[in-house]
């Protein structure tokens, strides 16, 4: 691990070095924007060589992905706090989606996911196994008794996938003119919420 530069404070571990690179990248993005931030910018921010950064990340997009992922973790915590007290599955999912549509574009780190193209959680990556599994894990944190609602682990994976597909569309291709929250909530209650009503009877249709 390179100990030159680093503002005179070399990192004590690889994990600390990676985090400092991520933090420096976030500062560069704030200053230059995501499309104009380069590995050279990050290296200069840290006072190290490009090769030092390369030891920890192969591409600038990998670092930006980590910046976005850390923003996502904080965002999920905020969303779960927002949903406290909403125990109905349909209501929780609708309010969670409204919260996402309202908040994601205003969250600097999280909005990076919308700017990185098809490799991100809101591009083609929205339907990867890993992203769906993360979405299902997020749903498990909702203040909802999924089992009592007849929604098992496989159902949560399916629900996570359809939510990611819908969010991708709502965020990247908003209605024209844009829907306000009331109209969006009405739309989701009309077309999404019914899928979460009477789930135990309809989740597994007869073949």
SSE order and pairing:
Layout: H1 14-32, H2 39-46, H3 50-54, H4 60-83, H5 89-103, H6 129-140, H7 153-172, H8 181-191, H9 199-202
**Looking at the structure, what is the overall shape?**
elongated
| Unreliable spans | 117-125, 200-207
Strand segment count: 0
Largest sheet: none
Determine the mean pLDDT.
84
- Return Rg in Å: 20 Å
The separation of the N and C termini measures 58 Å
The helix count comes to 9
Strand content bin: under 5%
State the helicity in percent bands. Answer: 55-70%
Order of helices and strands: HHHHHHHHH
* Classification by helices and strands: mainly alpha
Question: What would you say this structure looks like, in words?
Answer:
The structure is a single chain. With 207 residues, the protein is mostly helical. α1 (14-32) crosses α2 (39-46), α1 (14-32) packs across α4 and α6 packs across α7. The chain has helices at residues 14-32, 39-46, 50-54, 60-83, 89-103, 129-140, 153-172, 181-191, 199-202. It starts with 13 loop residues before the first helix and ends in a 5-residue tail after the last helix. InterPro entries: Homeodomain-like_sf, HTH-type_TetR-like_transc_reg, HTH_TetR.
